[in-house]
Amino acid sequence: MKEGPDIARVAALLGDPARANMLTALMGGKALTATELAQEAGVTPQTASSHLAKLEAGQIVIPRKQGRHRYFTLSGPDIVEALEVMMGIANRVGHNRVRTGPKDPELRRARVCYDHLAGDMGVALFDGLSKRKLIKTDLNGVALTDAGVDFANGFGIDLAALRQNRRPLCRECLDWSARQSHLAGSFGAALLDRFYDLGWARRMSESRIVRFSAEGEQKFRELVGD
Amino acid sequence: MKEGPDIARVAALLGDPARANMLTALMGGKALTATELAQEAGVTPQTASSHLAKLEAGQIVIPRKQGRHRYFTLSGPDIVEALEVMMGIANRVGHNRVRTGPKDPELRRARVCYDHLAGDMGVALFDGLSKRKLIKTDLNGVALTDAGVDFANGFGIDLAALRQNRRPLCRECLDWSARQSHLAGSFGAALLDRFYDLGWARRMSESRIVRFSAEGEQKFRELVGD
DNA sequence: TTCATCATTCGATTATCATCGAACTATGAA
DNA sequence: TTCATAGTTCGATGATAATCGAATGATGAA
Q1: CATH number for the domain including B67?
Q2: Does the interface ipTM go beyond 0.90?
Q3: pLDDT at A100 (0 to 100)
Q4: What integer best gives the mean pLDDT of chain B?
Q5: Distance (Å) from the C-alpha of residue B130 to the closest C-alpha of chain A?
Q6: Which parts of the sequence belong to the HTH arsR-type domain (chains A, B) (predicted)?
Q7: Does residue A130 surpass a pLDDT of 80?
Q8: Does A7 contact B168 at a Cβ distance shorter than 8 Å?
Q9: How confident is the model over B110-129, as a mean pLDDT?
Q10: What are φ and ψ of residue A180, in 5° steps?
Q11: Which of A83, A95, B71, B135 matches a 20 to 30 Å C-alpha distance to B11?
Q12: Is A101–B11 a contact, with Cβ atoms under 8 angstroms apart?
């Protein structure tokens, strides 16, 4: 006992409902102000301020001052990873929130998972790219095929730039709502960016929902080979 | 807000020091009894029982009754993953436990990370296999090379059997003590098993420490090309 | 059966912490 | 300057939950 790093301190910081709501909101990838986070968490600004001070002291979030606002972001990809894993666990053991709001169906359909597409359409994307043999999955994980490289270039994705990053190009990410994998990694993020740029989809404000336009969805269906 | 699975409930279960200590102990891979876990956590049996009831209700651990003992194990690999990620975060932000016991140096040298080798020697293994080009790391992660496959067969590892499993063969796992990657996945686990079988090393009881014999260490050094 | 050990339940205590009202500071706009 | 908004600090309140002593049930050993 008394071995190693202190998990409890980190876990306790994620273990309060108000803080968990804030962090989940920050998984959207956008920096949010203290008041926005207070609303997300459903608490008063005073309470939110106290929570944010704790999260900041624990180096879970990083504040950035701009004018009279303070914008908060998650302190690193490891935080995202931790939240993702815990969502997977919570989903597996059936720890869903008591009230599932009206936004729930849309969320399960298409949402942003920090920077890539998740939900049913995220899973469809993964399956579609696999079926078209643009990505392949083996025991070592997911990888882009030669055909996939050609596709990426044709689709307007600069693979060379992505490779600059230390981050893996392709990564599986367990989708808590669909119980299947969707595509993460820098390639997954780049795909979603292209969907935005092409006008196929856009982020709903104040939410993780990704809404596709009619044409956008049709193009998407063609892409995944439906 | 009010979207998705309830992270907070899971995180709160991991967020108590006593429970975190218990779970860390279970990362050793062995099933432990309630009293053993009470000792690990540094609390009385009554308190431990209360914690274990909570963990069981939250499906974080699974009890198995045997005689008058109750043996507990982690409920799935996702729990291990969550604990690992949180250790990484805790280490990054410097949340180490206040008292670092006398076992600390040995732990940092060689310990079991659920089922594979971690610590300095775990990192040395990863580096050694890379240098000998038995494994390779690219943007898609770690993979066994052709030479690596030959090596595994010669070393007494049944890759065909490992492939039965859905689990990835090779996986990087961030070592919290060395701040570098060591080798996880079913191949990583199989390697450690062989070290045990060959008598190179053995598990210390009541701890995650892996202790190498003198000859064992020498063989290990040859293996990693020192 | 009798005894010892493992584990749980109950009850009481204690400490921690989330919460919010009120007051205060800081920044920007008019 | 004056006003409005963003955010924090302080203090009080209330609820939750961790802890352990004592008692109870359950299993195996003698």
Answers
A1: 1.10.10.10
A2: no
A3: 45
A4: 87
A5: 15
A6: 1-94
A7: yes
A8: no
A9: 89
A10: -135, 175
A11: B71
A12: no
